[in-house]
């Protein structure tokens, strides 16, 4: 009789665990949606003000900072994605990798939100960058392209190095077989 009770408890435990997970997922989705709307209303203006404070109306500094931000944060995000792909072992690690890559790319994403956004905060951010941060948006675009190209070149070099090492191992093994 005791065995029968334990068997009946297991489905209930599984149901409560599933119910708890569904509730947590629902709460998480609500938090993400609310955060998205609050961020869309506040973040573009805030980001443009931070950049405007750094650049202070100097077009050369705006371009240089844009190139730096674009390339550095693109490379960082791509490196995080590469590490996540290379050492993937579960869906949790994959989700964490995507979150970390998005955080690493957030300066570029905030600038992109200003450029393509259609809300009042994005329009205010555009005006702020026009006056206080000239050259930053274009510099960020150039830096992002540079970051992607550098990542592709480094990836190609790493791939070809591995391929050449394998060819060398094969040639040495062939030479050893011929010597015997």
In short:
This protein has 180 residues and is mostly helical.
Fold and architecture overview:
The protein is mainly α. The chain has one domain. Helices cover 91% and strands 0% of the residues. The chain is built from 6 helices and no strands. The chain has helices at residues 2-55, 59-86, 91-104, 106-116, 120-132, 136-179. The radius of gyration is 25 Å and the shape is flat. The model has no long low-confidence stretch (mean pLDDT 89).
Give the topology.
Layout: H1 2-55, H2 59-86, H3 91-104, H4 106-116, H5 120-132, H6 136-179
Shape: flat
Elements, N to C (H/E): HHHHHH
Mean pLDDT: 89
Count helical runs. 6
What share of residues is helical?
Answer: over 70%
- Count the domains: 1
Strand content: under 5%
Key terms for this structure?
180 residues, mainly alpha, 6 helices, flat
């Amino acid at each position: 009789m005791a065995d029968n009770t334990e068997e009946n408890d297991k489905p209930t435990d599984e149901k409560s665990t599933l119910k708890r997970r569904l509730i947590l997922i629902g709460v998480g989705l609500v938090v993400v949606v609310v955060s998205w709307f609050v961020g869309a209303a506040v973040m573009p203006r805030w980001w443009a003000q931070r950049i405007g404070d750094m650049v202070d109306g100097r077009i050369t500094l705006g371009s240089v900072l844009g190139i730096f931000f674009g390339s550095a944060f693109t490379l960082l995000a791509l490196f995080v994605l590469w590490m996540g792909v290379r050492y993937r072992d579960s869906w949790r690690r994959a989700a964490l990798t995507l979150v970390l890559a998005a955080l690493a790319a957030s300066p570029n994403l905030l600038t992109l939100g200003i450029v393509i956004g259609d809300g009042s905060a994005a329009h205010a951010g555009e005006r702020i960058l026009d006056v206080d941060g000239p050259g930053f948006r274009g510099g960020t675009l150039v830096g992002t392209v540079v970051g992607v190209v550098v990542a592709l070149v480094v990836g190609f070099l790493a791939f070809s190095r591995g391929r050449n090492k394998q060819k060398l191992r094969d040639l040495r093994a062939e030479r050893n077989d011929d010597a015997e």
